[in-house]
Design goal:
Length: about 120
């Protein structure tokens, strides 16, 4: 795939935003979350947690559930999430992440709210 310098710049901005997501979430840095993702109220419970360790690897899976209010629209989150980590030296590094809303209607409603569409179901 050939990319332009604009594509590369956009990709670097995306990587930067993703790199800020979990530290902002874990530390509760609401100013950073608001600056990067807009105004949203989310309350998430982690359910059905499963963690397996294998050598220098770790697999974790759970369900994130709870209410979210985005752009004035209420959305009920039910996201199945899985992550694979690998221990490199003294640090755990995430190598893979998968998230699934499970129900297409819920995903479409969430996307419409986040993207500011007027087509809320």
């Amino acid at each position: 795939m050939v990319t332009t310098s604009k594509d590369s710049a956009d990709r670097m901005k995306l990587i930067g935003a993703l790199a800020e997501f979990y530290p902002a979430l874990v530390c509760g840095d609401l100013a950073l979350i608001d600056a990067n993702w807009g105004s949203a109220r989310v309350q998430v419970d982690l359910r059905q947690r499963v963690i397996h360790r294998y050598g220098d690897g770790l697999a974790a899976a759970w369900q994130e559930t709870g209410p979210a209010a985005v752009s004035g629209w209420a959305v009920e989150l039910r996201i199945r999430t899985g992550r694979l980590f690998r221990r490199i030296a003294e640090w755990w590094r995430r190598g893979y992440h998968l998230g699934s809303f499970g129900a297409l209607e819920r995903l479409e409603r969430y996307q419409a709210a986040v993207l500011g569409s007027s087509a809320h179901g």
